[in-house]
Amino acid sequence: xxxxxxxxxxxxxxxxxxxxxxxxxxxxxxxxxxxxxxxxxxxxxxxxxxxxxxxxxxxxxxxxxxxxxxxxxxxxxxxxxxxxxxxxxxxxxxxxxxxxxxxxxxxxxxxxxxxxxxxxxxxxxxxxxxxxxxxxxxxxxxxxxxxxxxxxxxxxxxxxxxxxxxxxxxxxxxxxxxxxxxxxxxxxxxxxxxxxxxxxxxxxx
Length: 205
Hints:
Elements: H1 20-50, H2 60-63, H3 66-91, H4 95-125, H5 134-167, H6 173-203
């Protein structure tokens, strides 16, 4: 059975794994995420080593406002749930619900980015710039790098939604949606570590 035959109601229960190409894409992406894990691990280690080097700038305890960060965390974790609902809808071949839940995921991701930009602007006003201290440089590198991943994910999702609208759900588009879901969960897990290591540990000194 070729790709043209695997569309619409002919799709199997897990269309992302229906072809060797789809399975290879998923495996390759897991390997990519392994590399990303090492990269973020290096950034975390650097931040932990430098987090007390505040120079003349404000300390983490003085700077961080957990209310804003907690709201951002809620938005991003909720977006992870809605991406799961989108993948479940894909397995049911419900294109309408796929679009709905991924659009909600996109909105939540953009709201998270908005809060992060607001947070960074507030920090700059309080004298916490990229060059203020080793602590500030490592903070902006780690948190900003994660924010860049969220922004990339949002753009990627827009492209996938356009492809879904144009081509429908097939064994070609399904692996792309599934791989995006893996990426988005990875971004959310990294944020949980950032929230714990950067913000919570920062507030407790």
